[in-house]
Every structure is written in C-alpha cells, then in structure tokens.
Amino acid sequence: SWTTSNVVDEQIAAIRAQVGDRRAICGLSGGVDSAVAAALVQRAIGDRLTCVYVDHGLMRKGETEQVEKDFVAATGVRLKVVDASERFLTALAGVSDPEQKRKTIGREFIRVFEQAQAEIVAEAPGDQPVEFLVQGTLYPDVVESGGGTGTANIKSHHNVGGLPEDLEFALVEPLRKLFKDEVRMVGQELGLPDEIVQRQPFPGPGLGIRIVGEVTKERLDLLREADAIAREELTAAGLDRDIWQCPVVLLADVRSVGVQGDGRTYGHPVVLRPVSSEDAMTADWSRLPYDVLARISTRITNEVAEVNRVVLDVTSKPPGTIEWE
Ligand code: XMP
C-alpha cells in the first residue's frame, strides 16, 4: 500500500542497489523536486553524494542565496556552487524558439555537471568514480516530455527531453513515479523544513523560458525586478498557499505606447500568470483580488523602467500551458 514511509524505504533500497559504492552528483535547482531527490539520495549513500548548484543567471532574485542557506542548513549536504551565467547567456544568444531554448539549457546543465564531476574526482582521486546524476524528475515531467523518447509531446522538460544524447552519466531519478503532492509528503517525511517543501514550483530553465524572445542580460534584469515585485505583493497578501505558482512573463519582442509623467513611453508588457492546480497537469487561472492585482501593476510600471503595461493571463490549462514556453 502507498505510504510515504514505504516510498522512502523502497527508494532508498533502490538507490543503494543502483549506485553501489560509487559516487553521485545531484543538480539542485532551489525547487522542491531536486531538494527531495537530493535528500533521499543523501539518506541512501551519505557523503558519496555531492550536490551541485548551477547558477545559470536565469534565477529569480535571492534564489541562489536561499539555496546556499536553506538547503545546506537543513541537510548538511556537501554543496558545490558553480557560477555559469556567462556560459548560459552565450549559449542562448540568438535563440528564441522555446524548444531550442529548453534543449540549449538542458545541454549546458549537463556540460557544467561534467565539469563539476571532473573537479570532484580531482579533489578526491582515490575514491570511487562519480558515475551518477540524480535528478528530481516527476511523473508529469516524464509524460509531458514524451516519456524520455526524445520527442516532446508538449514541451521538453530540461531534465528529460532536454538531455544531450552523449550523456556520460547514469541517471538516478527516485521521484519518477510521483506527483508533486506526494513529493512534498516525502520531503516532510525526510524532515525537510516547510520553506523547502511548500515552495511553489519554479522551472529548471528558470526565467529563460519566461522571456518570449531572445534571452539577454538586460531582459533578465527587467524580468527579475518585475517578478520580485509580484512575489512580494502576493506574499504580503497572504496568497502563497492559495495559488500553485504565478509566473511573470516578459513579452520582450512586443512594445506598446503608454504615457508616464508628461512623456510618451514605448515599453514592454509583462504578463501575470497566477494559476491554481493539483498536479500541474491541468490548471485554472486564479481569481486574485483586484486590489492585489492593482498593487502589483502599479508597482511594476512605476519601478521597472521599460515595462509600461501589466496584463493578466485568464487561460486555463488546457488549452494554455502554465509557462508560456
Ligand atoms: P507547463 O508549462 O508544462 O508546466 O504547464 C507544468 C509545471 O512544470 C513546470 N515546468 C518545469 N519544471 N523543468 C522543471 O523543473 C522544466 O523544464 C519545466 N517546464 C515547466 C512549470 O513551472 C509548472 O509548474
């Protein structure tokens, strides 16, 4: 029968059987899934796991600091932080097609993991090889990416359909059969704090798939500001538990005319995409209070230069997906 403690015991046994006495690395994204996957594997193989946090420059405001602080404090895991923002920006230059972005980001992640692997081996060459890559892939990721067949049904999740073909790692994916609510229960069972377990989902490719158009440093900076304002106001209004997540999307190739002070503006719109959902397979748009929407809109247009319109996405999934790309 399905109980979280059964799932934990089964997965720990399966991980031990798969990894044996060798070593693994786990990409931490700051999200629930990779945190729970890492905590499970750590339970199974202890410090033969090294977590790697790749700062790809597509993170939200404050996210990197949070991973370094919260997760390490909660688990005591070995953590390696890699600043790879230049590398990702270079790889993404000129890319605006959503699937190509996802594949580019997936490929760069793996390249960074390979480098991290080499460094870990160099630091302790006598130890067992680092052969495994732990990922927090969930059941819906597998389904929407076409079951890892390489052909995306809907979109290539960065850790499934976005992997390069010449992957040198064997994958360890202890959450592959679970839905998000089950992952949260497993995380609780493992003793992870609420700040991690109840965190809203955030996609591995980060803000890279929330800029419709090419990803540049300037655009990322704009979006990071707008997103931080929206999150701050939603939290202040006590709405974090009511919504599943609220992507903020920059329509970077769209401009519209506005007026501010006594001047004409010609800026970009951002889209608010608040949704409610059980498992992200389907979703409905959240009926947020108008006064909260008004505060977010006023603050974003006042505080983020270049953004002169805030629009609300009122599409369910289907037919829309949660993210715009
Ligand atoms: P969609 O846009 O497919 O999103 O309706 C469903 C859920 O998955 C998240 N998402 C991702 N998570 N890697 C992830 O770790 C990805 O590549 C990815 N793409 C989408 C999205 O935020 C939503 O919660």
Automatic annotation (TrEMBL):
Nucleotide-binding as UniProt keyword: yes
- Specify the pathway: Purine metabolism; GMP biosynthesis; GMP from XMP (L-Gln route): step 1/1
GO MF term list: ATP binding; GMP synthase activity
Specify the domain of life of the species encoding this protein. Answer: Bacteria
Binding-site list for ATP: 29-35
Q: Where is the GMPS ATP-PPase domain?
A: 2-199
Question: Is Metal-binding one of the keywords?
Answer: no
Function according to Swiss-Prot or TrEMBL: Catalyzes the synthesis of GMP from XMP.
Record-given protein name: GMP synthase [glutamine-hydrolyzing]
Q: Which residues of the full protein are shown?
A: 206 to 530 of 530
